[in-house]
């Protein structure tokens, strides 16, 4: 292959779905599906046609050369062996750094190339072609993408990624079904198979689970050991230790994130803005007006350019502020009374069984509140002047988290601050944590299977009805591509056009972190429940992605983005809430006297805030080797550009000198 090396047999990675029908002989020349298959083969794709129960599936694979030439057409930037990022050239493929698994392109890059190839099939003739589908005819205009045309005509039902069975089975054995090492994960293999965003999530989850073992052991010790008169000092010590733990964890996570990006050849700093995109592969168009559009609209007058950009910037910020205010007022007016009513009922009900049942009903009911709030948030985001879909996704995260923050913690604040009943607070925390974690894991793992089973049942029922009862006995799906098509997609519960399923997984982690941190002094044992849940979560999330959902569309996000800000906000909140809890614990008479012990708690609050700030400055966000490599690559790039520039200047000087001699 032109010296570029083989990467093994090409696996089928893309599926195209069309309705199944009885094909008439002699109609091959102008049948739109036949034309599509021929065009796919002409551009170098390998096509395998599969007839399912109701649909026909076109499985697509691509030789390395076809993907390489597509990457060159896209001017896809890749890192070279001297550290510079340059547009990819197929004839110079040896100059570019390969992925950790030895492949030339990552899954994210390959999917981007596939989309460019299949949506780039156009009518290159100068005449209109007439295509047929059964008795229907339509015109294929010159320069019109064929796949997009068939989607608009309703002939192409869906285009979706396919699982690679060999790699999927390897990950099942080494990751999802590997119970020997509770927190070990093949992160590089996950990155190669799923892409950057999912690999970053599991790297964060694994590190968080390992780190949480320390406060879990400390909390278990507080539960089992009676410290007697020393108990008055143990809780403040535990409180200080978990704040230091959290501050160190987030700083070391940033270091790990930087190391992962360097290993995956991704040039995007951890502290970058949320709009930072890996390889700039923003498949959606920019929201509203870009700077170029603004100049076209308002003219190219340099004196007004700065004013125009500032006007658009502040108009966008005001729109976002307006939308945030709407969400906050909606929470206060609609959700707050519901939350306080639940907290009051929990306080007055005497039976523990009825309290447990009330909690279960409450957790089910709030799902509808959150879905309504999420839809309102998505609607409002459409009118914000966000620079990209990544900024819009972060805006959605902040708004929806505000809804969940209210419904998750307002009842607990009610028991902690108004009633100041620590025993009731502990019971609420135990029930909330156990019920919510069991309920969420049950829904996460059962709903995809139920959706898949229902789609299979409908497909079989329609098949029997179409065959008018001629089919008897048990019917099975023999082709894996059809089974994958029936599986649900990995999408978010709200705002699926902006976020994928990681939205719900990160939300679950953030709510858990807030629960265990903000009420740590009241219930130290919560860290134990969280550790056990996270150990199980690693395996269940892996199994869910590999077996229960379709292969997710790769998303190019190099960091956890807005979620890191939310975790750090919860850490600051936990400093304040735990100081109040300590006041409640040590001031049982309710007189709120500023005695030396209580004054020490308020002083401790300010010291912990200072510690959090100090650790964020002492611990660097990048390892030294990452920083050194980046500086080395920058220096090499500057040297290369300097030499090229000097050669260009010298060449021009010679030309000018020769012209002067001629004159």
UniProtKB/TrEMBL annotation:
GO-annotated cellular components: membrane
Membrane topology: Multi-pass membrane protein
Positions of transmembrane segments: 198-221, 233-253, 325-345, 396-417, 516-536, 556-585, 597-615
Molecular-function annotations in GO: chloride channel activity
UniProt subcellular location: Membrane
Protein name: Anoctamin-like protein
Anoctamin transmembrane domain ranges (all copies): 190-632
Keywords of the record: Membrane, Transmembrane, Transmembrane helix
């Amino acid at each position: 292959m032109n010296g570029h090396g083989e990467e093994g047999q090409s696996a089928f990675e893309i599926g195209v779905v069309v309705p199944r029908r009885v094909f008439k002989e002699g109609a091959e020349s102008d049948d739109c599906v036949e034309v599509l298959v021929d065009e796919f083969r002409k551009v170098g794709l390998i096509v395998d046609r599969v007839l399912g129960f109701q649909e026909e599936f076109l499985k697509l694979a691509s030789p390395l050369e076809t993907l390489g030439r597509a990457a060159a057409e896209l001017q896809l930037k890749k890192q070279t062996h001297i550290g510079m990022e340059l547009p990819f050239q197929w004839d110079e493929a040896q100059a570019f750094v390969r992925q950790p698994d030895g492949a030339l392109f990552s899954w994210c890059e390959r999917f981007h190339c596939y989309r460019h190839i299949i949506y780039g099939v156009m009518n290159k003739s100068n005449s209109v072609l007439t295509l047929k589908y059964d008795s229907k005819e339509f015109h294929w205009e010159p320069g019109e993408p064929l796949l997009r045309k068939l989607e608009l005509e309703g002939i192409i039902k869906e285009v979706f990624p396919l699982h690679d069975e060999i790699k999927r089975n390897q990950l099942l054995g080494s990751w999802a079904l590997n119970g020997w090492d509770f927190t070990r994960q093949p992160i590089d293999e996950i990155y190669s198979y799923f892409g950057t965003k999912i690999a970053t999530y599991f790297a964060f989850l694994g590190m968080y689970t390992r780190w949480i073992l320390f406060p879990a052991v400390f909390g278990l010790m507080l539960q089992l050991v009676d410290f007697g008169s020393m108990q008055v000092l143990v809780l403040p010590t535990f409180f200080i230790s978990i704040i230091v733990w959290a501050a160190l964890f987030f700083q070391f996570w940033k270091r790990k994130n930087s190391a992962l990006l360097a290993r995956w050849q991704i040039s995007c700093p951890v502290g970058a803005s949320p709009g930072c995109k890996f390889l700039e592969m923003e498949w959606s168009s920019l929201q509203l007006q870009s700077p170029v559009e603004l100049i076209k609209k308002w003219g190219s007058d340099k004196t007004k350019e700065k004013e125009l950009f500032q006007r658009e910037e502040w108009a966008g910020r005001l729109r976002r502020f307006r939308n945030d205010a709407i969400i906050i007022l909606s929470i206060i007016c609609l959700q707050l009374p519901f939350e306080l009513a639940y907290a009051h009922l929990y306080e007055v009900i005497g039976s523990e069984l009825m309290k447990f049942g009330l909690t279960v009903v409450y957790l089910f009911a709030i799902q509808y509140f959150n879905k309504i709030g999420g839809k309102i948030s998505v609607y409002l985001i459409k009118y914000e002047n966000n620079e990209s879909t990544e900024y819009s996704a972060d805006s959605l995260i902040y708004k929806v988290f505000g809804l969940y923050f209210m419904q998750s913690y307002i009842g607990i604040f009610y028991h902690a601050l108004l009633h100041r009943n620590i025993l009731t607070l502990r019971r609420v925390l135990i029930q909330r944590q156990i019920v919510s974690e069991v309920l969420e894991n049950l829904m996460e793992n059962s709903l995809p299977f139920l959706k898949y089973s229902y789609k299979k049942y409908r497909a079989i029922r329609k098949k029997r009805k179409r065959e008018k009862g001629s089919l008897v006995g048990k019917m099975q799906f023999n082709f894996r591509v059809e089974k994958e098509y029936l599986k649900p997609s990995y999408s978010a519960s709200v705002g699926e056009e902006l976020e994928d399923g990681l939205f719900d997984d990160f939300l679950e982690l953030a709510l858990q972190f807030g629960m265990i941190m903000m009420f740590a002094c009241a219930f130290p044992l919560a860290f134990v429940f969280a550790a056990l849940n996270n150990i199980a979560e690693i395996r269940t999330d892996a199994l869910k992605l590999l077996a229960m959902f379709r292969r997710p569309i790769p998303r190019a996000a190099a960091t956890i983005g807005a979620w890191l800000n939310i975790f750090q906000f919860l850490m600051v909140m936990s400093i304040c809430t735990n100081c109040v809890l300590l006041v409640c614990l040590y001031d049982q008479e309710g007189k709120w006297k500023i005695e030396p012990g209580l004054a020490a708690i308020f002083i401790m609050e300010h010291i912990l805030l200072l510690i959090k700030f100090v650790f964020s400055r002492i611990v660097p966000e990048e390892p030294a080797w990452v920083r050194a490599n980046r500086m080395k690559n920058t220096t090499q790039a500057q040297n290369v550009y300097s030499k090229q520039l000097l050669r260009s200047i010298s060449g021009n000087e010679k030309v000018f000198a020769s012209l002067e001699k001629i004159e």
